[in-house]
Design goal:
Elements lengths: L8 E8 L6 H10 L12 E10 L2 E10 L10 H4 L4 E7 L3 H5 L1 H12 L9 E6 L13 H9 L6 E3 L8 H35 L14
Parallel strand pairs: 1-3, 1-4, 4-5, 5-6
Antiparallel strand pairs: 2-3
Length: 215
């Protein structure tokens, strides 16, 4: 009888964006199925966890919530290290929150230092589309998608934490992107390990040097 040894994967996802765009609200809506009208700024960083199943894979999503204030922006490499996916959030009604996305993107690349920045999974969420029935919207969907396309066709979702619009869909995409990235990293390091073993077994012969490069 075949026993299925399913490994539960821990996936680290980081949310970045200006203060007040709704990062915490989106996470609360997804993890706890609730929304609070009272705004309370996140201090430093905190995380929430959510267990789910993607196909036959058990996944624990560890979602890190960050303070958007300028003074907390440089949270240090330790915070970013080990991230499997990065999600940018802006408020569709606030142009400044959209314009600062590029600096958040640069900050992540600088601090996390992913092995292949072009292949690392990023997503963009345009939040608060429910406000004033869309009449106070300041950033068009077209403009947001152009920004995503210029950065490797980043997936984009328009969301409302308050109305629970597109939240589950966005997080499922986030989880799948993070899982794919982690599995690719596993294969990359396994190939490096195999190459090192071959070199050691062969007494350090010169033929095994390039076997681990997956890029």
């Amino acid at each position: 009888m075949e026993v299925s040894a399913t490994k539960r994967r821990l996936l680290k996802v980081i949310f970045l964006g200006d203060s007040g765009v709704g990062k915490t609200s989106l996470m609360n809506r997804y993890v706890y199925k609730k929304f609070c009208l009272q705004y309370k700024a996140t201090i430093g960083a905190d995380f929430m966890t959510k267990e789910l199943q993607i196909d036959d894979q058990l996944v624990t999503l560890q979602v890190w919530d960050t303070a958007g204030q300028e003074r907390f922006q440089s949270l240090g490499a330790a915070f970013y290290r080990g991230a499997d996916c990065c999600v940018f959030v802006y408020d569709v009604n606030v142009v400044k929150s959209f314009e600062s996305l590029s600096s958040w993107h640069e900050e992540f690349l600088k601090q996390a230092g992913p092995a292949d920045p072009k292949a690392f999974p990023f997503l963009l969420l345009g939040n608060k589309i429910d406000v004033d029935n869309g009449n106070s919207r300041a950033v068009s969907e077209k403009r947001a998608r152009q920004w995503c396309n210029s950065r490797g066709n980043m997936p984009y979702f328009e969301t409302s934490a308050k109305e629970d619009y597109n939240v589950n869909e966005a997080f499922l995409c986030i989880a799948k992107a993070a899982l794919t990235n982690e599995e690719e990293q596993d294969h990359y390091f396994e190939s490096i390990s195999d190459s090192v073993s071959e070199v050691e077994a062969g007494g350090g012969g010169g033929g095994g040097g390039g076997g681990g490069c997956a890029c």
